[in-house]
Amino acid sequence: PTNGKPIVEFFMNFAFPGHDETPGSVNGRSFVDFPMAPLVQPHDPRSSCSREDCGNNKICHCPYSVSFSEGDLVQLVFVNMGAGRGWDHPIHLHGHSFQVVKIGFPVYNQSSGEFLNENADIDCGQGEKGAESFCNDAKWANRSWSLDGIPDMELDHPPLKDTVVVPSGGYVVTRIKANNPGLWVIHCHINLHMNDGMLALLNESFTKWPAPPSGFPRCHNFI
């Protein structure tokens, strides 16, 4: 239960979208490491993704992160949809265990188990020129399904996990409480997928990070 606290919601699509290039990505952002230490140089412009390079039907390469504040109740909707779906992804989070409050499966043939269609609860938006959307900007198809308005959520005794399998064509709704300041990795636990860029960071409670010591050396990219 939210206990009256506001909920911050993020959709994160773990997939391999693209045309000529189809890297692993989260919301179309294929992760590349920082050229410096982000915990001590968080304002370096190289620590974020460019709005010009990234978008709903684009692929970009950058250190992707989402941010929230201390005390937030954070709802992370893990999605596996759009032009880049095709694998089930075991998604693993560092720094927290999360509550699994809902799983939305795709439509299967009830006799053969064959995949038929993606789950219709998620709106992936329109693709370019009639092509399938990359689903980089997923949202609820029913706009009234915001936060606590989502039906069939298990809020009384949700299982607590640090890894959950997101079915191809489906989604998983999870929740965490922002009570562990830091920069936490979330990624597909298939190493090939993670190393190909299917990784992001949770930038949690930035104002609570301890400041580096006075005169602490600044790192730069000498490669």
Summarize the helices and strands and which ones pair or pack.
Elements: E1 7-15, E2 25-26, E3 29-31, E4 60-62, E5 65-68, E6 73-79, E7 89-93, E8 98-104, E9 107-108, E10 115-117, E11 122-123, E12 139-140, E13 160-161, E14 163-166, E15 171-177, E16 182-188, H1 191-195, E17 199-204
Parallel strand pairs: 1-6, 3-4, 5-17
Antiparallel strand pairs: 1-2, 6-15, 7-14, 7-16, 8-13, 8-15, 9-10, 11-12, 16-17
Word description of this protein:
The protein is an all-beta fold and 223 residues long. The radius of gyration is 18 Å and the shape is globular. It has a single domain (7-208), classed as Sandwich (Immunoglobulin-like), CATH 2.60.40. The model has no long low-confidence stretch (mean pLDDT 89). Strand 9 (107-108) and strand 10 form a beta hairpin. The protein has 1 helix and 17 strands.
